[in-house]
Design goal:
This protein is an alpha+beta fold. It has helices spanning about 5-35, 35-50, 55-60, 65-105, 125-140, 150-155, 195-210, 250-265, 310-315, 330-340, 350-355, and strands at about 140-145, 150, 175, 190, 215-225, 235-245, 270-280, 280-290, 295-305, 320-330. A hairpin with a 5-residue loop joins strand 8 (about 280-290) and strand 9. The N and C termini lie far apart (about 105 Å). The structure holds adenosine-5'-[phenylalaninyl-phosphate].
């Protein structure tokens, strides 16, 4: 090869090399500046397709010396690799940006700012429930719970109310449709009409786990009746049940407990009285009333000495143990305490009513 020819080839190979670097630099710069995926796709085909400048340069290398072709070929592959890497990195950045933009466009702002900074508080019935628990816990009572769906046995039979006992009509009962339940005959499941079934559950559990008697417990909870809502009745309301079982418990203990509770909850100038009444699960039974400032009396709940048959249902020997029980309506108590005229106000969820308490 002549010196001239050699100089010419060197010039050619250097020119190709410069072009390759220039293309690589330009490609990387434009890829880094691409603002969306379609622009990136266009750049990928501009710089890597068969018709790209790199491919054209490759074709023009056929006239170079093998050694130079090899060197430039390697350089070209390197540049191609760099462009591909730049494309992949930019693609991943742009894809992440697209996802983030979609997420922030689709996210819902569920905070409702009403321009007020006051916190809410528990419903007045819930607060009354909690206050009652506190009073009885302060007197040494435990808090018990029971299910709202009860068996006929717990709700009635174990409480000395066998099937077709006339006193069952004292509670307008909601029965559950059990036709889909294997082995449960109709009329066996009820929405509990009172919290008294928890008396039985408490005694049975105390006997089973050996924790009692003595038993001093209260059970607040929701109860259900087929009562039409009016100023003094709700079909779904709340009761608190009290149960004491110990040795030598008398009606005097019951009266003293009620009086202590009334003074603790309503104030020391309030008093209580018992009036004879009838409940199948207590004998003797009474209604208890509290005094009103105008000298009258308000009925609050029922109570009495636990019937021997009820103690037996709870697994206890009535010759050894005696006890008293009481049950009253939490909603009616809140009504008296806060001077509310109509029980239905508790159910309306009218914020103007609720925020007064
Ligand atoms: C009972 O439910 C008895 N289990 C109470 C009891 C327990 C007596 C232990 C003896 C021993 P009664 O059906 O009277 O009794 O209901 C008790 C209280 O629940 C009532 O005094 C009243 O305060 C409240 N109450 C009854 N029905 C409704 C109603 N529909 N809406 C709101 N409160 C009610």
């Amino acid at each position: 090869m002549s010196a001239d020819q050699e100089r010419q080839d060197t010039k050619n190979s250097t020119a190709v090399d410069i072009d390759v670097s220039g293309i690589g630099d330009e490609a990387c710069r434009r890829i880094a500046e691409a603002t969306d995926l379609s622009e990136l796709d266009a750049l990928a085909s501009e710089f890597l397709d068969k018709s790209s400048r790199l491919s054209q340069l490759k074709a023009s290398m056929k006239d170079l010396e093998p050694e130079e072709r090899k060197l430039l070929g390697a350089r070209m592959n390197q540049t191609r690799g760099a462009i591909e890497a730049e494309l992949a990195q930019r693609r991943s950045t742009l894809e992440t940006e697209v996802i983030q933009a979609r997420l922030s466009a689709e996210s819902l702002d569920l905070t409702e700012y009403l321009g007020q900074t006051t916190a809410g508080h528990a419903h007045v019935v819930t607060r009354t429930w909690q206050e009652l628990e506190d009073v009885f816990c302060g007197m040494g009572y435990n808090v018990e719970t029971g299910p709202e769906v009860e068996t006929d046995w717990f709700n009635f039979e174990a409480l000395n109310l066998p099937p077709s006992h006339p006193a069952r009509s004292m509670w307008d009962t909601l029965y559950l449709d059990t036709s889909d339940l294997d082995g449960v005959s109709d009329g066996q499941l009820v929405l509990r009409t009172h919290t008294s079934p928890v008396q039985i559950r408490t005694m049975l559990r105390a006997v089973r786990d050996g924790s009692g008697p003595p038993i001093y417990s209260v059970c607040p909870g929701r109860v259900y009746r087929r009562d039409t809502a009016d100023a003094t009745h709700l079909p779904v309301f709340h009761q608190i049940e009290g149960l004491v079982v110990d040795r030598g418990i008398t009606m005097g203990d019951l009266a003293g407990t009620i009086e202590t509770f009334v003074k603790q909850y309503f104030g020391s100038d309030m008093t209580s009285r018992l009036r004879p009444s009838y409940f199948p699960f207590t004998e003797p039974s009474a209604e208890f009333d509290i005094s009103t400032p105008d000298g009258g009396w308000l009925e609050v709940g029922g109570c009495g000495m636990v019937h021997p048959n009820v103690l037996r249902s709870g697994g206890l020997d009535p010759n050894e143990w005696s006890g008293f029980a009481f049950g009253f309506g939490i909603d009616r108590l809140a009504k008296i305490r806060y001077g509310i005229k109509d029980l239905r106000a508790f159910m309306t969820n009218d914020i103007r009513f609720l925020e007064q308490f």
